[in-house]
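Predict the 3D structure for this chain.
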Amino acid sequence: MANSATLGRRQTIIAAAQRLAVKRGYSGFTVEDLAAAVGCSRRTLFNHVSSKEEAVLGVLPEITEEQVGVLRAGGPTGDLVEDLVATIIDCLGGDDATAEDWQRLQDVVRRNPELLVRVQDHLDELRDSLVTHLAARDGVSEEQARITLSVTAAVVGLAVEGLIEDPGAGSLRERTHHNLALAREVLSPAGRPGTTARRSTQPG
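Done. Predicted structure below.
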């Protein structure tokens, strides 16, 4: 229960910080303002977040040592794309984040473009790290790892957009796998829009 209460308080702080960042701008409020909005002391605030930036952005996605070990060893399923999808979604917090959470974060970044640079720098570092770990798998080159990550990140990104637009149409994980299935259909020769099967020119 204590862990649940701690998590709940942390989420309350992040939500309040994001609302202030949208309303006043990132530089338009202080830590004291945030503490007052949440109804706690500055000291209590920093028991749950390490900085004002973390309060506004939450913890940016990270890959754990356990995830690294599984990914490099060829897991968790043995399918490169499925493994990367699972890892990325877990790095984003799985299905715990709601459409409202994603919408607030989107609003924060749009209102405070200086934070977008911080987020992008972090995501670039994570991308390079994931490419390194993927390329450590048997039979996977660095080029293959980069292409796989680019496609997978796009599929997940569309799933997040869909979650914001229509929260009731499935979880982030469900939407991502739906998008992935569509991508595979499009990328397969038989599934490409406008593609007509070639007739054999060899004698029957």
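Residues 197-204 have pLDDT under 50 and may be disordered.
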